[in-house]
Amino acid sequence: MNIHRDTPFSLRLAALLCSLLLAACSSAPTSRTPPAKAPPAASKPGLSSERLSLADTAQANEIVLFALGLLDTGYRFGGKNPDAGLDCSGMVSYVVEHAAGLRLPHNAAQIAARTRAIERSALRPADLVFFNTRGKSYTHMGIYLGNGKFIHAPSTGGKVRVDTLEMTYYAKRFDGARTLFD
Q: What's the CATH code, domain 9-23+52-179?
């Protein structure tokens, strides 16, 4: 399939969704396991050092598709649900909880601290990408979609959108990749 830049965004998005679904259908069947449960809460939010992870990699497709369903949702600092608006970590937390049943902290640095680091070259759809946007590590994040693209809630006045890791702004601020999968 050859999609050109002048093809409308909705058609490109539909082509991406179809290719993701076809890729999911071409994999060997896996047994369905219940979603992983979040570890018990620490006495204060974010103090637990227990690593968060999902055992079933089939949940990656669910995470990506659920995230794509939030395209054009409004940004709101501290936002935790699409009706009121989402910030970057609120979007990731919302998606992972609703698509895979795993509750994440609502803070990019806390999510980074409790997930496993991976090399950028090892990124797979549903992995997490982090950026240094305010002079310190892990101040922005998104969900990797594949082919160098990620979905995120960018900033005040913005909407959930897809960008590429190669865009100058994000390439200069890339702060690491992490995964929720063992």
A: 3.90.1720.10
